[in-house]
């Protein structure tokens, strides 16, 4: 029975991680307001290696549609500007004497719909990842039963628990998506 419970615990942990990744992905999708999480996935070429922006600068949001990025090393300003310009944020950063100012224009209706499509794609990718984790765990549990390590009743009980984990995590993804869509539609 210990093998079944460890398989279930492992599957639950991986599903939780998939939800966290989805949350990060949704945070990187631009809405009408600026927030530091939008810059989390931006990688900056710094002395030949790609480094996350968060390790090179602080990101502040003094206004709803503006972000200020203060690099720790002023020599990295050009690289940071280039990385932001090349990112999928669709903004043009401006160097303002050692601080990078990023103004976010009002989103058009069409752009909002594009971002909703991106959010739905990311949500579906997360759901697929969760279902793949379920399939792998189920195969491992069925192998334990086939090898005679666990009984049919224990397998059935564990499979029901696995289904509950799966539906709970998929529901969390759906809630995140619903929240992101309402955020994007808010004008």
Feature tags:
alpha+beta, 2 domains, 5 helices, 4-stranded antiparallel beta sheet, 187 residues
Order of helices and strands: HEEHEEHEEHH
CATH architecture of the largest domain: Orthogonal Bundle
Query: What portion of residues belong to β-strands?
Result: 15-25%
How are the strands ordered across the major sheet? 3-4-6-5
Indicate the CATH class of the largest domain: Mainly Alpha
CATH topology title of the largest domain: Topoisomerase I, Chain A, domain 4
- Mean pLDDT, to the nearest integer, reads 89
Main β sheet profile = 4 strands, antiparallel
Q: Number of helix segments? A: 5
Alpha carbon gap, first and last residue: 53 Å
Q: What is the gyration radius calculated from CA atoms?
A: 22 Å
CATH homology superfamily name of the largest domain: Ribosome-recycling factor
Helix proportion: 55-70%
Q: Name the shape in a single word.
A: elongated
Spans where pLDDT lies below 50 across 5 or more residues: none
Whole-number count of domains: 2
Strand count = 6
Q: Which class best fits the helix and strand makeup?
A: alpha+beta
Fold blueprint:
Layout: H1 2-28, E1 43-46, E2 49-52, H2 53-56, E3 57-63, E4 66-71, H3 77-86, E5 94-96, E6 99-103, H4 109-146, H5 152-185
Antiparallel strand pairs: 1-2, 3-4, 4-6, 5-6
Helix pairs in contact: 1-4, 1-5, 4-5
